[in-house]
Amino acid sequence: MYIGIDLGGTNIAGGLVSEDGRILLKDSVPTLKERPAGEIVRDMAELSGKLIAGYGAEPEEIEGIGIGCPGIVDHTSGRVIHLTNIKMDEFDLAGEFRKTLDLPVYVENDANCAALGEYVANGGGADSFMLITLGTGVGCGIVLGGRLFRGFNGAASEAGHMTLVYGGEQCNCGKKGCWEAYASVTALIRQTKAAMEAHPESMMNADAAERGKVSGRTAFECARAGDKAAAEVVDSYAKYVADGIVSLENIFQPEIISVGGGISREGEYLLKPIMEYISKNRFNKYVSKTRIVTASLHNDAGIIGAAMAAR
After folding, report:
1. pLDDT > 90: what percent of the chain?
2. Cβ-Cβ contacts under 8 Å for 145 (sequence gap 6 or more)
3. Is residue 257 within 8 Å of residue 245, measured between CB atoms?
4. Residue 222: pLDDT above 90?
5. β-sheet bridge partners, residue 170
6. CA dihedral over 85, 87, 92, 98, signed as positive or negative
7. Are 173 and 139 in contact (CB under 8 A)?
8. Which of 217-244 are b and which e, b meaning 16 or more Cβ less than 10 Å from the residue's Cβ?
9. What is residue 26's predicted lDDT score, i.e. its pLDDT?
10. What is the pLDDT of residue 29?
């Protein structure tokens, strides 16, 4: 058995995973990302211990713990080199983890983990596979010939920080106009709030007041209910997502691009406008085309992929 940990900006999700990639037990705790890194890692280790105990297993039955971490990591040493949304730069994540739970620990980029999880489950043996994750940020993982593509320095696949709009919205990475600043769920929430302010009559305002917050689902749910301002938010957001995918497809021409992250649960309601935009704007209109799909593992992809990275 393995443990997979998916470190996100909002939650730390963990799962006990079988050799063949099935989640046997899972749980999560809040990240509280403004805390010191050591406290976050302690919670990750304690969550792992809770999973082991909850399944009735012994620590020695765990063959490895994989941690999917956003940003740039050194998968050979278990160190975090640079992390945009959590304060963990130049940090020995594996070493700190073992202070609480002394088991073999492997650290991999979270989008790489999610890509590996989706590829193992649904890649169908594709020679080239790409997963785009839409969450707090925008992640990207690439699998070529069944192996993760990391680049020569382990920093590859940061598609969220390619420029979508020169001099555009400020991104957490320090640059302006990144794809992440337009296509992440964080960006979607910002776009929704702007539309709510511009359209006080929109049902998005009543929906947010009833739920006590604006979420990535607010615009989608209100658009389905017929709200015009919400529909405009959804249409604009889908085009931002699709425009980045067009660039990735034009460069890599992968066999499959899978769109994941919590927002992918919108399924065809999100995928249809994305595909309409891609079909009109992709460069390749002459030979076999990349297949665009929504991910099926959703938030479990990072857990499963992290566990598989520890094999």
Report:
1. 84
2. 127, 128
3. yes
4. yes
5. 176
6. negative
7. no
8. bbbbbbbeeebebbbbbbebbbbbbbbb
9. 97
10. 97
| N-to-C CA span, the chain | 9
Q: Fill in the amino acid letter for 309.
A: A
Report how far residue 166's alpha carbon sits from residue 188's, in angstroms, rounded to the nearest whole number.
Answer: 19
What is the average pLDDT score of the chain? Answer: 94
Could you tell me the two tokens for 276? 């309409």
Confidence category of residue 148, pLDDT binned at 50, 70, 90: very high
pLDDT for 70 equals 85
Q: Angle at Cα 120 formed by Cα 116 and Cα 123, nearest 5°? A: 95
Q: What is the mean pLDDT of residues 247-272?
A: 92
Report the predicted TM-score, pTM, of the whole model to 2 decimal places: 0.84
Beta-bridge mates of residue 163: 178
Question: Which residues have C-beta within 8 Å of that of residue 276, sequence separation ≥ 6?
Answer: none
Q: How far apart are CA 39 and CA 43, in angstroms?
A: 6
Residue 194 pLDDT exceeds 90? yes
**Do β-strands 64-69 and 105-109 pair in parallel, antiparallel, or remain unpaired?**
parallel
Residue 33 scores a pLDDT above 90: yes
For residues 234 and 39, what is the distance between their CA atoms, to the nearest angstrom? 37
Count of all residues that appear for the chain in the document: 311
Of the candidates 108, 30, 24, the residue with the CA atom closest to the CA atom of residue 66: 108
